[in-house]
Amino acid sequence: MTEREAIDYPLAPIDAIEPPTEWAELREQCPVAYVRLPSGDQAALLTRYDDIRQLIGDPRFARNSSEKDAARISMLSQQESPIPRLGEGHQRWRRMLTKWFTTKRMAALRPQIEAMAEQLVDEMVAGGQPADLRAGFGFPLPVWVICHLLGVPNEDRDRFSHWSDTFLSVSRYSQSEIDAAQAEFTTYMAGHVAAKRAAPGEDLLGDLITRADAAGEYLSDDALVATGKGLLIAGHETTTNMIGKMMAMLLADRSHWEQLLADPSLVRTAVEETLRYDANAGFGLTRYVDEDVELPGGTLTAGTTAICSLGSANRDESVFPDAAELDLSRSPNVHMSFGVGPHSCVGQSLARTELQVVLEVLLRRLPTLALGVPVGELPPVEGLLVGGLQKVPVVW
């Protein structure tokens, strides 16, 4: 494609479960395509699985870049994290977090997640139908879990949601609104870190305060604040959205729900398949390329900002047979929804655990669950870097 033919990005999905029509065409005809971002800047959009896997797995390229010629997503200034993003410092930081997201720790946490899910179903049923599954279940569950891990008050969850949305804003908020909200968020988390220094406790932040990394170094206050903010955002925003999207996928054609009711052992593979099938995954991962890169689908020249569409990669027919079909028993399932390489999602085991618990509890408690509106009427999240649904009305 030439610069004249640059297409506007992001691409809009058809509805909650149907992907943008352009994905298949771009994968087949133009796997490295010029796109025009909301800022007006130009970037290269990658849509094929092999191209994206190679690029995001390459440790040479930063997830975020302050290079002056990097494309801006929007005209608004982007929030930056002081957490080291590359090199050994970043890997040491990841290793410090890893102990909190091991299989053993998730198994120990699971009964508490199940108990909270049961309580939320009770409250949703007591409120009557139709109910908004996102507001009554999909939002409070992951917020409670991440607050529990960080040792922050669950009662502040509405504030966290607003701060998170402003952090992820592309067009929903003004610069002054973003700056004010992020200043509040930073002040809040700095106060929390200071309180933890005085009385660390047994939560994740308390552990990071009192434990040195492999090099014998402790995280600075700025790094602790950024860690707390980052985990609060990532720990509830993406999982909240995925719960709503997962349920929309499974209930849009109730034969999928009936299949799970008949065989609950499919819950684990069903979670992985809905992660792969997600047509509304959000903006995608960005990579700034400061040297030429040869990909199977084409060349990225130095100075290019690449947008990696994980949603499109997960629909790549060359990797996933019958990629357009939701196959709840698909195995193996090598989707890239959590990324790959040094920047893959550190909390993916927690997200998987939460999504599995959601399915198990809802299948057991509300077997007659159904969407309250046609799937095409589910309103998408707009103006944010993440994809999701504003509401998921359900009946039972």
UniProtKB/TrEMBL annotation:
Name of this protein: Cytochrome P450
InterPro entries in the record: Cyt_P450 (IPR001128), Cyt_P450_B (IPR002397), Cyt_P450_CS (IPR017972), Cyt_P450_sf (IPR036396)
Alphabetized SUPFAM superfamilies for the sequence: Cytochrome P450
Originating species: Kribbella yunnanensis
Family named by the database record: Belongs to the cytochrome P450 family.
Source superkingdom: Bacteria
Pfam families listed in its UniProt record: p450 (PF00067)
Record-linked Gene3D superfamilies: Cytochrome P450 (1.10.630.10)
UniProt entry tagged with the keyword Oxidoreductase: yes
Keywords from the named record: Heme, Iron, Metal-binding, Monooxygenase, Oxidoreductase
